[in-house]
Amino acid sequence: MGMSVQELKTLLGEKRANEVLGVNDLPADRRAPEDKEGAVVRAVVKEVNEGLVYAYPELAGLFAIPNGGDRDVRVGVRLKAEGVKRGVPDFCLPVPKGGYHALYIEVKAEGGKASAEQIEWQEWLQAQGNKAVIATGQKEVLDVLIAYCESEA
């Protein structure tokens, strides 16, 4: 059985309880538009699915890791409980190539900078035998994917 709003406020304090309950959340149509990195990710996925996958069949295994984005506190709390972690790269290609186990790509829009958590993940993934890169813009992400696919198995 769940707890009442009053019990939640007693447990967390009024301010935090209101955040969790989404009392002050903006309606979806009034939230900030999606960030530029999301547009780059979508453009890369489209380019891979509509063309590059035919030249590089291993790209069929490419998947996005949706860690970023604008979310209300309730969704953030749920995702954290489900294991979502800050800084995890945007893409994973779980195909061994060039002496690496897999490729991870952190996508940045033009002018974007990697956070401390993103840099820590890059270093950790590399220490585990993966290729992990930070790429800026659609062209650079696609160049990284193609170069990885063209490297020796």
Your description of this structure?
- It is a single chain.
- With 153 residues, this protein is an alpha+beta fold.
- It has helices at residues 5-12, 14-21, 36-55, 73-81, 116-127, 137-150; strands at residues 63-64, 91-93, 103-108, 131-136.
- The chain has a four-stranded mixed beta sheet with strand order 1-2-3-4, with helices on both faces.
- The longest helix has 20 residues, at 36-55.
- The relative contact order is 0.15.
Termini separation comes to 53 Å
SSE sequence, one letter per element: HHHEHEEHEH
Q: What is the makeup of the main sheet?
A: 4 strands, mixed
Principal-axes shape call:
elongated
What percent strand? 5-15%
- Please count the beta strands (DSSP E, at least 2 residues each): 4
Helix/strand/pairing class, anyone?
alpha+beta
Strand order of the largest sheet: 1-2-3-4
Write the layout of secondary structure elements.
Elements: H1 5-12, H2 14-21, H3 36-55, E1 63-64, H4 73-81, E2 91-93, E3 103-108, H5 116-127, E4 131-136, H6 137-150
Helix pairs in contact: 1-2, 3-6
Essential attributes:
four-stranded mixed β-sheet; 46% helix; alpha+beta; single chain; 4 strands; elongated; 153 residues
